Amino acid sequence: MAEAHQAVAFQFTVTPDGIDLRLSHEALRQIYLSGLHSWKKKFIRFKNGIITGVYPASPSSWLIVVVGVVSTMYTRIDPSLGIIAKINRTLDRTGYMSSQTKKVVSGVLFGTGLWVALIFTMRYSLKVLLSYHGWMFAQHGKISRATKVWMGMVKIFSGRKPMLYSFQTSLPRLPVPAVQDTVNRYLESVKPLMKEGDFTRMTALAQDFAVNLGPRLQWYLKLKSWWATNYDLLYITPTHIQAARAGNGIHAILLYRRKLDREEIKPIFLLGSTVPLCSAQWERMFNTSRIPGEETDTLQHLRDSRHIVVFHKGRYFKVWLYHDGRLLKPREIEQQMQRILDDPSEPQAGEAKLAALTAGDRVPWARCRQAYFGHGKNKQSLDAVEKAAFFVTLDETEQGYREEDPVTSMDSYAKSLLHGRCFDRWFDKSITFVIFKNGKMGINAEHSWADAPIIGHLWEYVLATDSFQLGYAEDGHCKGDTNSNIPYPTRLQWDIPQECQEVIETSLSSANLLASDVDFCSFLFSAFGKGLIKKCRTSPDAFVQLSLQLAHYKDMGKFSLTYEASMTRLFREGRTETVRSCTTESCNFVLAMVDPTQTVEQRLKLFKIASKKHQHLCHLAMTGSGIDRHLFCLYVVSKYLAVDSPFLKEVLSEPWRLSTSQTPQQQVELFNLERNPEYVSSGGGFGPVADDGYGVSYILVGEKLISFHISSKFSCPETDSHRFGKNLKQAMIDIMSLFGLSSNSKK
């Protein structure tokens, strides 16, 4: 009962002798420390808001400008061209200031105005400079003199020591391409996939759209544009104690959150440290939940959250993250996790499979939430889940790479993190952190708030911090001491009626059908990596994408519309654009590879043409000249205006039977794979987006490894993820052989 008493700051009882008042000094102390922590956080945010608000200048530069202006006034030089004198005359009307005071105040006001004007000038100049993307289309490895001058100008106007959000106001808006350009690029992308008659019909539809309806929709889109602005380390398991791995992992995530709150995470740059990318997606990483709605879902984001919710054996526990006004240490978090693991209580009625609501159809979940979770203990408990910093699952299974059975173990590991048992991850939370019984861990991320590179950035930091900074004691526990004064985790209480339990079971059944249908193949390609590919003087991404085209043709005997995710974070609040990787050039290369009459020289020539084409399409997508986002926005406008477009309807109904995505390594400085080759991660994956297609995710790990994740559906008789994986491995080797470089060659 001691824990319960600590939760109450004071209590009073009315007795015949008067009022009996009892104070809990420890509880009052915790309230004081909690308030102190909150004000510290507010002050840091306020300070960062000022620093970011005046960037690329600094607050101290205001003093320099003002002192400089005032100093020139005493040398009888007027830097304001008469403006200071006008300010002085205006102040003279007040009659409250001496002549000397008016002179100083006039100088300070003009200096402040000049400082603000310089800030806006620098920002606008930087925005204009960042709107130039010609450097991206230059030949790889060659930088022209004009580009070097441009880079120098960008660095001059970029200021010093930027914080995470420093460049947000200086990033250009995503441009709206010309309708005719988008239509032409679309027709070019589908030409190799259509028969001549179908292509002729589509061309007529497209050109009619470009001339008639397209310009009208484009006008509205232009108007809007002006005001709208995962996996663990494979070979290393530093401890097999589940609670200890959770302690270090959760603490590392919270250290990252603290850096994020303080904007201490460095912005991501391209072209060395020259061109900044948008950082907006980081804002909703923590304290965020997706809220179901009957018409549309919404994202609920809190500025702060001081607790997490932990799921174990069908029970939900609320765990506070702070004690004595400070963040819990790894050993203290381990202690809390072990208390949960040791808790013998049973799940309440309907509690064990409750999270299946987040895995099934959205409308039943939205109706259930409104009917059964709007008041009482259910509301309090659901609030605890949805308002948590993130969700944690102490998984009862053992997962991870096993050398004696690499294929089955990797596939099981991937599927577990993708969907688990469909009721042991809260799929609406931005992050579900999963720790398995044998100490392996991973993340399941909800996708609407951000794209894969954002969660990947967090995970790189967590793995490096866990391994190289926090570490473990010799007995496998977290370093440090336990703390018996920390209150036990709190069991969340539920009162779930039978009607809601029936919806939970229905949601679980539909989710299980989807999950059991996922055919997942995860493997490391170790014959070579990007180090050898770069010796071929080609883009590693283009090499992999052309390998995917060759593998797909050998697997399916045909070409398919292909999606590759490309980022648009060169622009403010940019997300993704589509690279249509199946092109006329890639098809010509693939057909040459399967034609025994073609020579190596001819195949190599076609490969270079296709690779160059792919890189060009990537650059177009990154610089705002892609196809699919523009067409989708035009479709949205057409729906708003209630006009029908046969062209747009047909375009948006085309299935992506090969959906691909590369997860980039962003913080290579955290892991020295030459010195520690065993510290490799297999990246992350996703499910297929078409019932009869493949989903392929890959990560270029260091210089010598490429990790692949291939998904499809068992219910489709035409697809087989492991068969595709074998075709992909062979395609990679076959293409490399064109260059006369064998696996691990030093040529």
From TrEMBL:
Nucleotide-binding among keywords: no
Carnitine O-palmitoyltransferase N-terminal domain location: 1-47
Enzyme class, spelled out: transferase
Single Gene Ontology MF annotation: carnitine O-palmitoyltransferase activity
Gene Ontology process terms (BP): carnitine metabolic process; fatty acid beta-oxidation
Active-site positions on this chain: H447 (proton acceptor)
Topology in membrane: Multi-pass membrane protein
Keyword Transport: yes
Transmembrane segments: 62-84, 104-126
Catalytic activity: 4,8-dimethylnonanoyl-CoA + (R)-carnitine = O-4,8-dimethylnonanoyl-(R)-carnitine + CoA; (R)-carnitine + hexadecanoyl-CoA = O-hexadecanoyl-(R)-carnitine + CoA
Annotated localization: Mitochondrion outer membrane
Keywords on record: Acyltransferase, Fatty acid metabolism, Lipid metabolism, Membrane, Mitochondrion, Mitochondrion outer membrane, Transferase, Transmembrane, Transmembrane helix, Transport
Domain Choline/carnitine acyltransferase residues, every copy: 174-730
Enzyme Commission numbers on file: 2.3.1.21
InterPro entries: Carn_acyl_trans, Carn_acyl_trans_N, CAT-like_dom_sf, Cho/carn_acyl_trans, Cho/carn_acyl_trans_2, CPT_N
PROSITE patterns: ACYLTRANSF_C_1, ACYLTRANSF_C_2
GO cellular component, one term: mitochondrial outer membrane
Pathway membership, UniProt: Lipid metabolism; fatty acid beta-oxidation
Chain coiled-coil ranges: none
PANTHER family associated with the record: CARNITINE O-ACYLTRANSFERASE (PTHR22589), CARNITINE O-PALMITOYLTRANSFERASE 1, LIVER ISOFORM (PTHR22589:SF74)
Function statement: Catalyzes the transfer of the acyl group of long-chain fatty acid-CoA conjugates onto carnitine, an essential step for the mitochondrial uptake of long-chain fatty acids and their subsequent beta-oxidation in the mitochondrion.
Family, similarity comment: Belongs to the carnitine/choline acetyltransferase family.
Protein name: Carnitine O-palmitoyltransferase 1, muscle isoform
Organism: Tursiops truncatus (Atlantic bottle-nosed dolphin)
